[in-house]
Design a protein that fits this description.
186 residues, mainly beta, Lipocalin, 1 helix, 10 strands
Length: 186
């Protein structure tokens, strides 16, 4: 199903500016705090389809996760079977042909998220801005989206109990996506 705004502000094809786009994942940690990390290698494209609707597709490299110390923990998250198993599943991907941009600046995106080769539908909400002309004479805009997933659904099953009860890392993961997009020249 695809619903489009009366006039989409984004025509043609738009590519994420890799220096100014991020994907973050956040979880409750030790039952009291929060832990956030960023995937630093983000690729995405927003495309206007012939029917006027918008499609969004992108991926992040699992190995680009911003966990640097200790090295053993980073390796466990990137390569561990209870986490990403990046040797077999090096990318997290997203694809949507249902991008709704309302005139009030809100965005609603429904698509499919694939982690570790497991695909599930996902809905994300947020805002968009632009397009505006940047200092290089190109049109630029942004999409800011948030979604919550249960990591177990994607095979991210590592867990440890806390001594007083509870879990070290929450099952719910908040995903925050900021895409600064630039119109491609045809």
């Amino acid at each position: 199903m695809s619903t489009i705004a009366t006039t989409s502000p984004f025509t043609g094809r738009w590519t994420a500016d890799r220096e100014h786009s991020t994907v973050q994942a956040g979880v409750r940690h030790m039952g009291v705090g929060s832990f956030r990390t960023t995937f630093e290698d983000v690729t995405a494209r927003l495309t206007q389809r012939p029917d006027g609707g918008l499609s969004l597709a992108g991926h992040v490299s699992v190995a680009s996760i911003a966990i640097h110390t200790p090295a053993e923990f980073r390796a466990h998250v990137v390569e561990g079977e209870g986490f990403f198993a990046a040797a077999r599943h090096p990318e997290i991907t997203f694809a949507s042909s249902d991008v709704r941009l309302a005139q009030d600046g809100t965005a609603d995106v429904h698509g499919e998220l694939t982690i570790k080769g497991i695909t599930h539908p996902i809905a994300a909400q947020g805002t968009y801005a632009g397009p505006v002309e940047d200092i290089y004479g190109r049109l630029r805009g942004a999409l800011n989206l948030t979604a919550v997933i249960d990591r177990r659904a994607f095979g991210l099953t590592w867990q440890a109990p806390l001594p007083g009860g509870g879990e070290v890392v929450s099952w719910d993961v908040e995903l925050q996506v900021h895409l600064e997009i630039v119109q491609e020249n045809d």
